[in-house]
What does this fold into?
Amino acid sequence: MGIQTLGVIGAGTMGHGIAQTCAVKGIGVVMVDVNDAALQRGLAGIAANLDRLVNKDKLTAQARDAALGRVRTATAYAELAGCPLVIEAATENPALKLKILQQLDALLPPAALIASNTSSISITQLAAATQRPDRVIGMHFFNPVPVMALVEIIRGLQTSDATHDAVHALAQALGKTPVTVKNAPGFVVNRILVPMINEAFFVLSEGLASAEDIDAGMRLGCNHPIGPLALADMVGLDVCLAVMEVYVAQFADSKYRPCPLLREMVAAGWLGRKSGRGVYRYGH
Ligand code: NAD
It folds into this structure.
């Protein structure tokens, strides 16, 4: 499917990154958010990112202007009516996403596809909320979207081969490397990553090594670009805890139990970079 214009729901961190990535590759985007200020921030974020690329000679000024010209913003879902594909990247909230999927289902042409960028909500469940479950799929981009090469393509139980193939081809057209995974809590990357971060908190709380040495060990011994504790501070300790809570609830397996130290730090409001303190302290 050669997509000329697609819809993006949500203009936040992920939504505007997805919109930018599509626009740079020549695809028109209708970016919809319920919050006009979020749309303005999203557009400004795209413009600032593209300006940086121009300053580094990675993009011409004409290409930047053309990409910006491909992004249209709206607060009304009706603006999406002609889109063959909408990528949903709204706030991570199951009730909200189910409602958005139903709204899109009622609005879009029967052949249109709906992809969700959710990190933790079941694609099978989202698909079941629509009259087109075979045309619903997960398209899990990584942050920052314009930089990160991976897209996890998540097949719900009902997702058709045609839907999978179209979205897989789109990810490649965007210059990304798609990997196809079955629907399950955390999909693949976060299923492995977040328990590893949780284990790093156990190692820290058992006093086996300092935070700096745990991170150095994983950087130098496993060739990770960043240690697990420093990464937890970037992701947000509250986000890591919430993900572990989902695993322990959904798999009913104690191997996913959150580390008590992680819980303590979240209770203290030490959430990582965003709060100025997590495992490490940050300068504000
Ligand atoms: P965000 O809070 O930065 O942005 C969410 C946006 O959705 C906000 O601008 C909000 O106004 C908008 N929104 C809320 N309700 C809406 C509605 N009904 N219709 C349209 N827009 C609505 O969130 P984010 O970090 O961009 O995350 C978006 C999605 O991407 C979530 O599902 C999240 O799990 C997933 N995700 C996030 C990351 C990450 O690192 N931030 C990585 C991968 C996936």
Remarks:
- The two ends are 48 Å apart (CA to CA).
- The pocket of nicotinamide-adenine-dinucleotide is lined by residues 9-15, 32-35, 38, 89-92, 96, 100, 117-119, 140-143 (CB under 6 Å).
- Strands lie at 5-9, 28-32, 71-74, 85-88, 113-116, 136-141, 150-155, 177-182.
